[in-house]
Amino acid sequence: MQSRLRPLAPRERIAAIADSDSVRPADASLEAPRPSPHLARWRIAAQDDDGVVVARASIRGAPVLIAAQDERFLRGSAGANHGDALRRMFERARAERPAAVVLLAASAGVRLHEANPAEGSLARALTALLEVRAAGVPVLSLCVADTFGGASVLACAAERIALMPGTRLGLSGPAVIETARGRREVDASDANAVGALFGAEARSAAGHVELVVDGSDAVRDWIDIAARASVPFASWVEAMQQRLAVRLAAAPESGMRSAGARAAIADSQLPRTAAPLYTDADPTDDTGWLWRIRDRPVWLTRAIGTGTLGPREAHELSTALVALVADGAATGPRTLWVIGDSQGHEASRHAELLCISQYLAQLSAIVALLRSQGVRVHGALTDTGHSAAFFATALQAEDVYALESARVVAMEPAAIARVLALPASQIAALVEDDPLIGQPVRHFARWGAIAQVLPDVDTLRVLALATLDGGNR
Fold first, then answer.
1. How far apart are CA 465 and CA 472, in angstroms?
2. CA 302, CA 284: separation in Å to the nearest integer?
3. Looking at the DSSP assignment, which residues form a beta bridge with residue 163?
4. Which of 112, 135, 381, 451 allows an S-S link to 399, with CB 3.0 to 4.6 Å?
5. Side-by-side strand order, sheet with 399-403
6. Using alpha carbons only, what angle is made at residue 250 by residues 244 and 254, rounded to the nearest 5 degrees?
7. Could you give the 3-state DSSP secondary structure of residue 286?
8. CATH superfamily of the domain spanning 10-230
9. What CATH code is assigned to 238-468?
10. Do domains 10-230 and 238-468 have the same CATH topology?
11. Which band of pLDDT confidence, cut at 50, 70 and 90, is reported for residue 408?
12. Does residue 465 carry a pLDDT above 70?
């Protein structure tokens, strides 16, 4: 019988689209309770599945793994255990090779209440998603409720993404953009304006996503057809790069403009800690987004630095990295260092009109494609790793090295204050000293997302040595 998915709970959504009596636990560990240990301090009752249900089933006779997020629990926000469950599902899919992996997306993004471990966990889930795709297993995402923040990048990293009518997709929510840029940019209280920017119908009309009606039969049809029409990962990356280029070319000018390769790494554009990394390197592209250490098979991405990562910046960096992908037939090992310094992703109406989540997902996909070619990918943080810009760049490396003075801004203090309803003085203390939401890199490193924190003494020399050795420690 045809069922609407949106009114259902996550387990019921899975059952509605699966073949009759085919739903089973994905494995014992993913079925076991995994309540967040971090919510009690905020007087929030944890949920055993931490907001995501994972199961195995069949759809039209084909075996699938399915994850269904629960927007009823803290808006579906991804805590550390939530992200870990997604990662383990993707890793199991890589081992088992089902016909498809399906993500029923419904999430506000990284959970603020445990921002540091949650961001690292969701970043590893994104890495695992792209690795299973590189291994030839299709991943399909269907947004059954609003999907924002890092969860939107995860959803857009799937081979196919569809939205149900009435749902919304975006990296920065309307309230975030209004706070950052003013009500003239986005009026978060205007439902029509918000729908025209983020809504499923608008996204579909713009060609960003597919639109699937809210019915179990329609969803089963979409999954069946999409899984059968899967293409090789490298071919998908190439086609998506072309699609995003056409979209960007048709849009009004926005974002940073590259002023030539050498000018691009001027001290005025980069943190002082990052600029000297390029002293013994030469640009490989006119815009200066990719640099090669002289006489060594070691490349560096240019840090975003004092700017933000918008669709144009992400696309130009992706274009530079595509050239390194094309060099895959070259003999000998290659090493890529992704420098994660930035002031975050671009939170603007323009960025959302272009669907910035897809540009960041594409950048992460190209890094994954390089890893699949045998390129060793390392991340470095010298100054500030900020929000989705850090999530989609350096955190997609095999390991990340950071200076002890670096900071990781998973959430801005204003967002923390809005969600936790705490006074400014208490927020200021938490931002410096709290392991869960504190910004000094030592807090982020505590949760395993940083391989090593390097001393600030002669920092540029230390990082230069780390770069020059190609990661062979």
1. 11
2. 11
3. 143, 211
4. 451
5. 281-283, 290-293, 298-301, 335-339, 376-381, 399-403, 452-454
6. 85
7. coil
8. 2-enoyl-CoA Hydratase; Chain A, domain 1 (3.90.226.10)
9. 3.90.226.10
10. yes
11. very high
12. no
Please tell me whether the overall predicted TM-score, pTM, comes out greater than 0.90 for this model.
Answer: yes
pLDDT the model gives residue 262: 60
Whose tokens are 């086609």? That residue is 239
State how far the Cα of 409 lies from the Cα of 450, in Å rounded to an integer: 14
Q: 139: closest CA among 79, 78, 97, 80?
A: 97
The sign one gets for the Cα dihedral 216, 217, 221, 227 is: positive
Residue with token string 């950052």: 180
Compute the distance between CA of residue 404 and CA of residue 441 in angstroms, rounded to an integer: 7
Please say whether the beta carbons of 471 and 411 come within 8 A.
Answer: no
Half-sphere exposure of 248 (CA within 13 A, CB side): 20
What the block records as the tokens of 217 is 């039969």
Strand-pair category, 452-454 with 399-403:
parallel
CA distance 287 to 304: 12
DSSP state of 302: P
Task: Tell me: pLDDT of 330 over 90.
Answer: no
Distances (CA, A) of 117 to 40, 301, 381, 447: 16, 25, 17, 5
**Angstrom distance (rounded) from CA 147 to CA 46:** 21
Q: Could you count the other beta carbons within 10 Å of the beta carbon of residue 33?
A: 10
Identify the CA nearest to 85 among candidates 57, 115, 49: 49
- Give burial (CB, 10 Å; 0-12/13-18/19+) of 108: buried
